[in-house]
């Protein structure tokens, strides 16, 4: 049985819509083996224990890409999930990456890392989550023609992150439908400048630039209206002197950037969150620099 560990990811970092992402120290585990039987999926809701399961369909896409013929008719898939679903922390990307990593290992590791990056992006539809899930760290990734262009970005060693996740979901499909088809030219300039500034701030370690570099006009203002208390949580986080805060992926999770030496932020914000109508889960996370890892080759 092949075992793969895949980190959570936060995409759309700051103003980096659909291009900037980071891997975080929260993980899903995937166990896959061929066996003489039918499809057997464990560790997920009953509604997903079928051939439409994202892990299974990703496995099949990888097998098709390689031209691999299964030795046995059946697949046994077990999933251990610590990444919350539909919260903007890359649970779908983890399923895709976990599936293709397991499939590639079963098929004899025929695909290179670049081929895996491309395949994962094709399945997901964009590379901002799947690329850091595969490579670890913070990445810039774009799709251009038939290729995925990507580069890793330095993360200062004195930073940590904090995820703030509510007990309600915002499905990605709905979160996409909220966005306008056109935006003002000045908003495009606003985002390009700040996304560039965030990469520069990370590369240089200049903390003072991060807060303004996390501002966005492409998706956060539109999605915030569908996330109860979003603006209040952001305001409180900034008031507690975090370095920056932004909507993680399509939301509703908010990701906060902190100095590692900040020992009181989580406690202080928890007091504020406890007074809100909805329940919010807060946890401190480190960057994951390894990306998806094969734990057991079977």
Mind sketching the topology for me?
Layout: E1 2-11, E2 20-35, E3 40-42, H1 54-66, E4 74-81, H2 91-106, H3 113-124, H4 130-135, E5 138-144, E6 147-153, E7 159-166, H5 172-177, H6 185-204, H7 210-213, H8 220-224, H9 230-239, E8 244-247, E9 254-259, H10 265-273, E10 280-285, E11 293-297
Parallel strand pairs: 3-4
Antiparallel strand pairs: 1-2, 1-11, 2-4, 2-5, 5-6, 7-9, 7-10, 8-9
Helix pairs in contact: 1-2, 2-3
What does this structure look like?
With 298 residues, this protein is an alpha+beta fold. The chain folds into 2 domains: 162 residues, Ribosomal Protein S5, domain 2, CATH 3.30.230; 127 residues, GHMP kinase, C-terminal domain (Alpha-Beta Plaits, 2-Layer Sandwich). Helix content is 34%, strand content 27%. It contains 10 helices and 11 strands. Strands 1, 2, 3, 4, 5, 6 and 11 form a 7-stranded mixed beta sheet that branches. The protein has a 4-stranded antiparallel beta sheet with strand order 8-9-7-10. A hairpin with a 6-residue loop joins strand 8 and strand 9. Helix 1 packs parallel to helix 2 and helix 2 crosses helix 3. The radius of gyration is 19 Å and the shape is globular.
